[in-house]
Amino acid sequence: MARIIGVEVPDKKKVEIGLTYIYGIGKTLSRKIVKQANIPSDKRIKELSDEEIRELSTIIQKGYRVEGDLHREISSNIKRLIDIKSYRGTRHKKNLPVRGQKTHSNARTRKGPRKTVGIIRSKEKKSTLKTKGR
Question: Which of 78, 119, 122, 123 counts the highest number of beta carbons within 10 A?
Fold first, then answer.
């Protein structure tokens, strides 16, 4: 496996697809980087020379924010929204959808599993209720 900017990229993948394993690089950006480095798009990661890998990593480091820097920037933006107490910041703080989605019946991904209110009967109690004729 080749290591580009601290990320293990699978050897059998084509260069364009392999670069998408780096956080912050999608398909379009990877095409642009490969074209900038003058590497044929049908080449696989294992076929790259050390010089080509170095070229890819320098292009990515100089021109784009990826991995740790991008994570830090995103988290600082969210922290700023929370600090200024904007609507989006309060939604982030409460772990609710931020972009205007309805929450009455959906939003389970963001809200987590349902919190049941009321009595929750265990299997043992249910079986004893059935045997008593209820």
Answer: 78
> Span 83-109, mean pLDDT?
92
Between CA 71 and CA 89, with CA 68 as vertex, the angle to 5 degrees is: 15
Measure the CA dihedral 96/102/104/109, to 10°: -50
The answer to whether the beta carbons of residues 98 and 91 sit under 8 Å apart is yes
Tell me which of 4.10.910.10, 2.115.10.20, 3.40.30.10, 3.20.20.60 is the CATH number of domain 68-134: 4.10.910.10
Cβ contacts of 76 within 8 Å, gap of 6 or more: none
Tell me the C-alpha distance between 38 and 32, whole Å. 10
* Overall pTM > 0.85: no
